[in-house]
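Notebook B, p. 112. Complex prediction, attempt 2.
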Amino acid sequence: MIERHDTDILIIGSGGAGLFAALHAQKANPDLKITIAVKGLLGKCGCTRMVQGGYNVALSPGDSVERHFMDTIIGGKWLPNQDMAWRLCETAVTRIRELENEIGCFFDRQPDGSLHHKAFAGQTFDRTVHKGDLTGIEIISRLMEQVLARPIERMEEHRALGFIPSRDGEGIAGVLMVDMRKGSFRFVRAKAVLMATGGGPTMYRYHTPSGDKTMDGLAMALRIGLPLRDMEMVQFHPTGLLAGEDTRMTGTVLEEGLRGAGGYLLDGNGRRFMFDYDEHGERATRDVVSRGIFSEMRKGNTTPNGGVYISMAHLGPASVAEKFSGMVKRCGDCGFDLAGGLVEIVPTAHYLMGGVECDSDTRTELAGLYVAGEDAGGAHGSNRLGGNGVANSTVFGGIAGEVMAMDIDSQKTFRDPDGELLQAEIDRALQPFTIHKRTKISGNIHAIRDQLEKTMWDQVGIMRNAEGLQKGLDQISEINGRMMDCGLEDDEKVFNLTWHDWLNTQSLVEISGVIANAALSRENSRGAHFREDFQDEGNLEQSYFTRSRQSLDKDGRPRLKVEQKNVDFSIIKPGESLVEEM
Amino acid sequence: MLSEAEKPTAEFLDVAIWRGNAKRGVFHSYKVPQLENQTILDVVSYVQRHIEPKLTYRFACRVGMCGSCAMMVNGRPMWTCRTHVDRAMRGIMRGNPLTIEPLRNLPVIKDLACDMSGFFEKWTRAEGRFHPTRTRSEAIEAISPDSDARKAANEAIECINCAVCYAACDAVTGNKHYLGPAALNRAWTLINDQRDGGRNLRLSAVSGKGGCHNCHSQQSCSNYCPNELNPTMSITGLKRETTKAALKREI
């Protein structure tokens, strides 16, 4: 039994991208029926809410869109799609004014009442607008209120299972979903669909994103053959909390400012080690510090739970407690004394720069399907600047809303769905139950996910080499085989989290394979991607990005192809600059 | 630190988790291995991952930012992701289990997951959203962070709509129309927001049936707010402002 549902615009995800898309589409054409479907609760799941740092925008006298753009291109090591990066920096200016003036966010002010801009790593100007260190909560709470007050349909705790193209393959017909609360399938037809599920590299043993994020959107895009770019580019944050097995808090971010303020990183024996790797010690950039810690972990110089320590006490526990009150309280709630003691940390997977290829209007290759936020690849290239993440999702979410409303203006009817594919996606989602019917055995999906996380961490993580990546690919393929033996008793589909854990793991396995293949293909070290066997960054003028695309071979088995495509220096070439004295 | 009488005697924690649906439910007992760094969310996750795969609960951010994982723990509403087991067991005598139930004052969907839609409907009904007076084509207004109104708004702004206060409030239990502390607290931040153009609309919205005058100032909201906000004080502010506006016949 599938329930059918129709809407004009279907938005998947309720982070900064999804909520902005809804508001802008509605403003562009108030007669449209707009639906937001989200895996958790509206505005509560996803990662925009978790933004600590802030929002990069060139507003101050002396700063400029050109300067923000150059920082973004240089930070991304010349890999960004320049049209997208330009659109990001340019539109951020109106978007931040919209957030303040129309949505109702209130960002921190200077004593004279003007906006406060803070310094953030990798930028040549203080341009990060923020609300303390809880910027994301302010943005998402205010956006959520505006959406709740409008006639926008909400489908909460609805999981997207598959994009269903039209029978003729010319465009998207709709999305298959499961209403998680009821455990029943729904096919939602829509004239336009926005994919805004947020990437989130949660296939790594240590990761920062919220628990609901499992690459479902990217896996869906992969399965219908859309091109994904920059998939090897996974950003790691150096200081994630480490609390041991079976703890949800493990991997969550301890803020960057702790190192900036003079915090020490100590190995398991209490020795400071970062100066062995970089003259800036703990204050080196995120990637350098992550590699330093990872190297110590490889050598076995670790703490009881296998990481290193962060120590702040030498700065005076009272002053640390005052300056980092939120972090100290968070650690305290979970049993750690950040101000006066040692807290175990590990590097942690934070953000996926890669995503679905699209143009700067958010259009994908498939008519009617749009992409914005972390699901979209290109704006950040090989590395994302802190503060460009939430700018990216809100800028392109808004653009998607306007473009979708415009594009479907002339479209009178729904596209006719490919019934075979629809059935295939239903069968896929029911796989764990089908396996159980056959084997009568309930598998342990959590052990499989743990194995995947270990593989990705060890072989496809912070430091990579050909041998390890190949080993990683073999292990991923073995894990995929284990999935096909992992059954689940078919006696309850209503709000069955373990079924969703199975589906989550399946999405992660599929995208892990893409990350590993793209990483094997890139034989140089750029931005977030570090190859021990190819440490040079390669020729900047001949910069390429990876394009991964899946197709079916003649036996119907999926085959992944990774190509190298030249970066189009549409605005600026390496060696040139749009600003003087960079 | 737990006192001697509170300390668990075994490596296992006795846990009683409420399981059921909107109509009925009962406590189920589980034994969960004790860990050094263990939150209530970790306990619930352990049960789902290792003992009862069909247990339903909700969480997202894991760090006290999203407000998805609040539950009643030993009878008190709290974020489960930020509550260490030791803290929850403080004052609970040896031999008693750790009890975990869905949030009070909200309909249950299944097990520990509640339907929060009524909570958010009230947020909207209290005009808990900004009414703009400027557009995106205009500059951002200069506002002194030290003005009294801004300070009052800032003091109450860091709410993550987790509904802990709503679950703690007896006035909500007694009156299903009562907007509750979270929605009214948000309304108060907007009353103090000099950029907002919806003042009278909002004062009307929070002064009618189910409005701020239903609050009995018992302060459970303020006692339980994990962010240490004081909704009782915000509601007192609304009572004052709505009364003044009514006397002046503005609402």
